[in-house]
Every structure is written in C-alpha cells, then in structure tokens.
Amino acid sequence: MADDGTTSLADENTALDEALAAEHAAVWGYGVVGAALPPGERAAAAAAEAVHRDLRDRLIALLAERGAEPALPEAGYALPFPVLSPVDAASLAATVEEGGVAAWLRVLDRAAERSSRALAMEVLGAAEVRAVGWRTAAGQTPVTRALPGL
Amino acid sequence: MSSPPLPGPRTFSRRTLLAVSAAGLAAAAAGCTSSPPEDERNAVTSEQADELAAQVAVQETLVRAYELALEADPALAAATPELADQAREQLDRLQAAAPGSTPEATPPPDLPPPGQGQAWLRAQVAVAATSHATAALAQTGGRAALLGSVAAGLRGHEARLA
C-alpha cells in the first residue's frame, strides 16, 4: 500500500517509466540542440543535458530498486521539425522541456508516494524555467505558460 | 524502419516522450471522475479540500498583486501583458477544482515600492509558487497535477520577471 493509503505503486511506476522515456528522449534531443548552436552558445544546452542525464539515472535506479523494468532509449528519434539554425535549436529545446513537463505532471497525477510527488515538483519548476529561456531564444510569444503540461 | 518521433506538444500522446493525456489531467483537476484507479487518486479528504481552498486564496492574493504592480508601473504592464492574464487563468482553474470554496484571500503585505514594482512582483510570485508547490505534495491525482502545473507556470513568471 502506498503512503497515501489509496493507490498501489503500479500506476506510479508506469508514470515514472514514461518520465524515464521522456528523459531518454531529452538527452538525445539536447545532443541535436547543442550541435545546431554555435560553440559559444552551447553552455545552456550542455547544462540542461546534464540535468536530464541525472534525472534519467535517478529514474533508472528508482525503478530498478522497485523491481520494475526501466524503459530503454529508442534506437533513434524523429525530429518534430528540421533543426537547421540556432532558432530551430532553441525551439527544439523548448519542445523537449515541454515534453518533460507533461511527463512529470503525469507522475504527479498518478503518484502514490509523497516522495515521488516531491521529485516531480523538484523537476517541474526548473524545466519550465528552462523552457521560458528557450522560448525567448526562439522568439516565441508568449514565453510563459499559465498551465504548463496541462 | 522509421524512428519514433521526438514529440512536441501535439504529439505527446503518441509515443515515447509523452504519454500524457492533457484532457484527462484537466478533467481530473476539475473533479471529474473516470476509471476506478483515477477515482481513487481523485478522492478528496476534507483536509485536502481545505488545503486546496487555501491555494485559491493564495492565487487570489497573487492576482491582486499583479493588479497593484501593473497599475503602479505602466511600463511593466506593457512589457509583460500576458502574465496577469495567465495568473487569472490559473485562478480560474483552481476555483473550478475547488467548487464551493470560500477562501479568504489576504491582500499583498505591502504596496510595490516606487521604481521597484518588478522586483516586488517577482517576490510575490515566488511566494505563491512555493506555496502551490508545497501544497501539491499533500494532494493526489488531478489536484496535485493542477497545483504542480500552476507552480511551474509561476516559476516561469519568476524567470520572466528576473
């Protein structure tokens, strides 16, 4: 029984596995983002990629600890649009972060354990801040969202 | 063999990156019911209902802070026209998730100091975001997701106001 007394961990583990799949995709996506940015502008992408690698590793460890089979990365991913310029790269990074926000919001929705909700909250705010930065770099308006992920 | 898409918002429901049904989350956040597991997650205790009503009050205070700051600083209002509207949208969603609540919003603790409206407003936003994020930990299901989304959105506002 989970600590909220109502739901099992199965739903939560499924949501965490979906978040892991999102983190695998984010790590891959930031590789594309970095490659499309001039060398002097890659620091933010590198930092974000490191964050997603860390989250990926934490999720793999957590799911393995629970006896669940962690999702593996896909052999390849298709870009949602061509990434041919720094602006395209920023748009892709915003898309990656929006995807992560949605996945982690699903964790909040399905979490049985308070610790998992805490992890999701730790991730969500930082991801939206990164998304605001990338939307700004991409020239998108508005750069903020009232309800990211919903 | 084709690669799976690296999804954007419109393809979140398809595969790898995002299996989220935004509509499902939104319905849950509004108190709608569906399958039994989701019913369980969205079952609300009186304590959770009270806490959600308190977050409505927190958001009402923030909406008032936006009004005060933007009235005091037309330049800030012109530079960030979307933020106040988004704060009100968040309030609408919280009110919809807490029907019948009668929160007692408190006014912001002070008025924006002349010439410092942006920093003052950013501080008010940070307080509300932290409050919603903390409250999300004690909620379950769609209510937790809604509070988490509002908190994340306000972190974005903080970044915009930096």
Automatic annotation (TrEMBL), chain A:
Highest taxon of the lineage: Bacteria
Domain DUF4439 span(s) in chain numbering: 15-150
Pfam families: DUF4439
SUPFAM superfamilies, per database record: Ferritin-like
UniProt-listed InterPro entries: DUF4439, Ferritin-like, Ferritin-like_SF
Listed name of the protein: Uncharacterized protein DUF4439
Classification lineage: Bacteria, Bacillati, Actinomycetota, Actinomycetes, Geodermatophilales
From TrEMBL, chain B:
Location of the region described as Disordered in the Swiss-Prot/TrEMBL record: 29-48, 86-118
PROSITE patterns assigned to the protein according to its UniProt record, in alphabetical order: TAT (PS51318)
Sequence ranges of Pro residues compositional bias: 105-115
Domain of life of the source: Bacteria
Protein name in UniProt: DUF4439 domain-containing protein
Species of provenance: Blastococcus xanthinilyticus
